[in-house]
Amino acid sequence: MNTPPSPPAVERTDGSSVRIGALVPLSRPGWVEAGQHLLAGLELAVREVNDAGGIVGRPLELVVRDTAADPQRAAAAVDELARLGVAALAGEYHSVVARAAAARADALGLPFLCSSAVLDALTEQPTEWVARLAPAQSHGWRIYADFLLGAGHRRIAVAAEPSVYWASGARILRDYLAPRGGTVIELDMRELAPTAVCDELVDNRATALLLLVGHPEPAVSIVQSVRRDQRLAEVMIGAPAGQPEFAEWATLLGDDSAAIPFLRYLPECLSPLGARVETALRERLGEAPSFVAFEGYDTVAVLADVLRARGADRARTAESWPRVAVEGTRGQIQFSRTAGISVWQWAWTPVQVVDRDPERPDRFRILHTG
Description:
The protein is α/β, with parallel strands linked by helices. The chain has eleven helices and 16 strands. It has helices spanning 32-51, 71-83, 95-108, 137-150, 164-177, 194-203, 219-227, 247-253, 272-285, 291-310, 314-319; strands spanning 18-24, 60-66, 88-91, 112-114, 130-132, 155-160, 183-188, 208-212, 236-238, 262-264, 326-328, 331-333, 335-336, 344-346, 352-356, 364-369. The strands form four sheets. It has a seven-stranded mixed sheet, with helices on both faces. Strands 7-6-8-9 form a four-stranded parallel sheet, with helices on both faces. A hairpin with a 7-residue loop joins strand 13 (335-336) and strand 14. The radius of gyration is 21 Å and the shape is globular.
């Protein structure tokens, strides 16, 4: 593969540890709870790697940088981590932020294993330097569209904010549903207050409303407005991006948090490894781990396996993506080239459509799998 020149002014270390740079949203406007779960998974796996002898006798060290959902801040962090001599990058939850980090990592020749971001076009051009664990948005959101059709929804409104990620999601839904008799009605949340969404749903005879908006706001206010409007008692609210996955959702919305289907990337039954990691993550987090925490753990498991086999050389790490075969918490992880995806892709992690049980909002119901 083409190897970019090494970045200037690399800071040499004493070689006592093998370092991985971790990009994580840990402050607003980033989705902090997602960042905390991602970091918990990364840190747990690093601890287990070191307990098992590290990377050929050298400890594995995580160098964490808060991206705060800011693409420019993430790109600057990649530059800094490259100068610090990290062997690879890991993490990031927000797709638009991961895209900026991936572009910079590609330019610098720094391997980046993206944990959670799903945007199909993670880089503008095909790259050898970036791999991804999370399923591409087109894959997961088509599964969600199948769920909508199976539940009898044909007139589907999307409350959307301006973003490459939200626009991509709306386009995937529209292109998939239209040939199958579905209609997507886009509601521009730059122009509508949450209460005005209710009138739009009535006027357009929508049977489902999907939240393609930020968390907690305006997502929480939209849910509250729709739930309180008696005209919309039969309208399903959905959140394919996964806002209801985290405990904060239930805390803010109470009973209104339930029966809002979203995408989750977990198998129906965890393997013995997955069950053991779940227990350890629950202890670390003080609550049930989200799928994002498992993504963090699996990221380090893959990188540690590659680093043990190939050393901490960046080019050799990137060359290893097609040879990865690692037992993760959610199945066997292998990377391949997938049509329409510019990075090395695990095709695919398990995908579920789940919601919070109205009888027990702290528990989840599996509604559909793909």
